[in-house]
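hiii so um. not sure if this is the right channel but i have a protein structure encoded as tokens and i wanna go backwards to a sequence. like what aa goes where. can anyone help
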């Protein structure tokens, strides 16, 4: 059985039914709010909230793997660099012989990590709970030119297309008894990437032959995007959050 991309899997959750622009607003308001706030505790609270949202969206397991897989290494690295060698360090909290751990550097490292995790977590939730067609349709409704919308859609679909092609090639190699080794995949990367880009170009040419680029004609979308009362409430809360910060 050929594997498909796991970018979006329909699960019929409340988060999935939200308007894509509400999720985009959440990324910027939560991420920028955490970045602007002088301390790291706001980012930590937002991260806890993102875990709750991931649970509601039924992607908690995948979300936890991504957050821990990125968060633990980056935290250790920044704690080491900023904690021991930051020029901001004035209050030493531990002496390890080769260097002293500074409180200011630790707090600054936590601030950076929390901000990165808020951006990563909110974007991951949007990506896993939003069909790309709805995202582009929502962006087009806000006034984005259809051509730009198509470029975004094609860019978002390049990686899933390459994943599907690599899955097909991998299963074909396994059927022929080819041992799964890294050097067996390296010669395939070039053709897979080029074929995915060629597909995007061919789709663009097909749209042009059907009048996609004609000016003065109102473009219609096959995908319908709705805005619920919950979307309005969440957008208001997100704006209030950002302004308050």
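sure thing!! here u go:
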């Amino acid at each position: 059985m050929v594997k498909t991309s796991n970018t979006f899997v329909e699960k019929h959750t409340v988060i999935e039914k939200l308007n894509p622009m509400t999720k985009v607003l959440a990324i910027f308001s939560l991420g920028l709010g955490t970045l602007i706030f002088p301390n790291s505790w706001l980012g930590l609270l937002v991260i806890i909230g993102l875990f709750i949202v991931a649970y509601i969206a039924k992607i908690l397991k995948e979300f936890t793997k991504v957050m821990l897989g990125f968060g633990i290494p980056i935290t250790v690295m920044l704690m080491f660099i900023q904690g021991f060698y930051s020029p901001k360090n004035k209050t030493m909290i531990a002496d390890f012989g080769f260097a002293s751990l500074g409180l200011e550097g630790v707090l600054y490292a936590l601030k950076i990590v929390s901000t990165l995790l808020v951006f990563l977590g909110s974007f991951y939730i949007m990506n896993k709970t939003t069909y790309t067609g709805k995202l582009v349709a929502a962006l087009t409704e806000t006034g984005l030119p259809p051509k730009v919308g198509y470029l975004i859609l094609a860019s978002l679909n390049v990686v899933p297309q390459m994943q599907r092609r690599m899955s097909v090639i991998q299963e074909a190699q396994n059927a022929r008894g080819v041992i799964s080794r890294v050097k067996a995949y390296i010669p395939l990367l070039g053709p897979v990437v080029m074929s995915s880009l060629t597909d995007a170009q061919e789709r663009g040419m097909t749209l042009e032959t059907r009048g996609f680029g004609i000016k003065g004609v109102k473009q219609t979308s096959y995908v319908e995007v709705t805005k619920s009362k919950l979307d309005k409430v969440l957008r208001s809360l997100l704006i209030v959050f950002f302004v308050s910060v």
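oh and The first strand starts at residue 92 and ends at 95.
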